[in-house]
Amino acid sequence: MRIFVGNLAWSVDDAGLQDIFAPYGEVTSANVMIDRATGRSKGFGFVEMPSAEEAQRAINALNGKEVGGRPLTVNEARPREERSGGGGGYGGGRGGGGGRGRY
DNA sequence: CATGAGCGC
Q: Which residues does residue A30 pair with via DSSP β-bridges, in sequence order?
């Protein structure tokens, strides 16, 4: 599952982000978005975890947790549109039924 | 000091 992590401290980088999620489950990928214009962190990043349940637990555990002096904003990431291909916007609501069964 | 809203390549 992909996880959106916001309100990151400047001190946190890709490795630091993975280090935060590591104890909650296997982290296959962690990325802190860097603004290429200034070279500083945009203050948010993404984490990829193969286990959706561990990922969800990590979200519950890390959301609001203070790291680097700032409370993290952790949430499931939104579907990202392909770079090639127009059209934007996010359709519909947040899946029906809730939770299980979406996949 | 690049310094704070926000969903990436």
A: A47
